[in-house]
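Budget justification aside, the reviewers requested a transparent look at the raw inputs and outputs of the sequence design task funded under Objective 1. We therefore reproduce one unedited record. The lines immediately below are the structure tokens for a 139-residue chain.
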């Protein structure tokens, strides 16, 4: 069994994918636009004028595949009740990832040593996705 996050960017999916490519080295594995839907337009949930918006995408960050869409193109993504966690190799990588995700976003908890990790921080990116970046404690 596998569980994969599916993120709805409400009209900003292309922008988000480009951001994650730059910030995290994400690779887009698959992308389908609403205009590529084989179903007639009147049967689609896509709002008028959204032909070039992303109906479905799959992208990889490291070994993890996430899925994404523009959804109903409402303009304001809403990501609540979860965070995505990035495990960094070392403190230098954690600092780089945290800084990249925080560009245009908001730091919730600065990167710092904690009782459970040599480096941990929380940041919400410019799209409203919450991230936790950590360097795991050595066993």
């Amino acid at each position: 069994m596998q569980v994969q996050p599916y993120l709805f960017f409400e009209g900003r999916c292309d922008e988000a994918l480009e951001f994650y490519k730059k910030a995290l080295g994400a690779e887009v594995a698959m992308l389908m636009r609403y205009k590529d839907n084989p179903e007639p337009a009147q049967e689609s949930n896509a709002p008028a004028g959204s032909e070039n918006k992303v109906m479905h995408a799959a992208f990889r960050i490291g070994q993890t595949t996430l899925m994404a869409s523009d959804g109903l193109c409402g303009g304001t993504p809403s990501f609540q009740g979860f965070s995505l966690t990035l495990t960094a190799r070392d403190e230098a990588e954690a600092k780089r990832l945290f800084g990249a995700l925080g560009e245009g976003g908001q730091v919730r908890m600065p990167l710092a040593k904690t009782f459970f990790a040599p480096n941990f921080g929380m940041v919400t990116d410019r799209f409203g996705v919450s991230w936790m970046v950590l360097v795991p404690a050595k066993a």
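Helices lie at 13-24, 91-102. The two ends are 28 Å apart (CA to CA). Computational costs for records of this kind are itemized in the attached budget.
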